[in-house]
Amino acid sequence: MKIDFKINGKPTSIDVDPAMPLLWVVRDELKLTGTKFGCGMAMCGACTLHVDGEAMRSCSVPVETIAGKDITTLEGLSESEEKLHPIQQAWMEEQVPQCGYCQSGFMMAAAKLIKDNPNPSDEDIKNGITNICRCGTHPRIMKAIKRAAELQHSKI
User: Fold this and answer.
1) For residue 131, what are the contacts with CB-CB under 8 A and spacing of at least 6?
2) What is the pTM assigned to this prediction?
3) For burial by CB atoms within 10 Å, which of 6, 32, 93, 120 has the most?
4) CA-closest candidate to residue 151, choices 51, 78, 54, 55
5) Do 14 and 65 belong together in one domain?
6) Which range of residues forms the domain containing residue 139?
7) Contact at 8 Å (CB) between 128 and 54?
8) By three-state DSSP, how is residue 83 classified?
9) Would 81 be classed as within a structural domain?
10) What confidence tens digit (pLDDT) does each residue in 121-146 have?
């Protein structure tokens, strides 16, 4: 089945099984490997990306449901190659990753959080970000989200 959508602002058309999870379309068909496979059950958040601006766990989204929609992956989060998104900048400043595997999903979830809540409290972050990091980088993630909110506010 042919499915048309935008990915990172670029019109895209793909002919795949309509039940194929969006995660595998993004990674295997479109070769955008920033989005990671974690649990395959929408529990861990490693596969988080944005569908029409909403953070979604792509391992559980059949590609047929994204026809006509706008998908953003980590590769498309920044406005340009020269300027990082505040989340990406803060992740580097705070040296968040340990192994780094889950971090793209965390960054996508965090980008949505600070878009909706430009000044999140610790409680907002804990309630709004349900991704899992097995390395235990949560304290650095909290700092980075707060830093990204500052960076985002300063660019307005």
Assistant:
1) 44, 45, 46, 48, 102, 105, 106, 109
2) 0.93
3) 120
4) 78
5) yes
6) 86-155
7) no
8) coil
9) no
10) 999 999 999 999 988 899 999 999 99
Looking up tokens 């990671």, which residue turns up? 36
Identify the CA nearest to 72 among candidates 127, 30, 124: 30
- Other beta carbons within 10 Å of 78: 16
In the three-class reduction of DSSP (H, G, I as helix; E, B as strand; rest coil), residue 59 is classed as helix
Dist. CA 63–CA 151, nearest whole Å: 34
CB atoms within 10 A of CB 117: 14
Using the structure block, give the residue that is written with the tokens 């059949």: 62
Domains identified in the chain, total number: 2
Handedness of CA 95, 96, 97, 102 (dihedral sign): negative
| Contact predicate 49/59, CB 8 Å | no
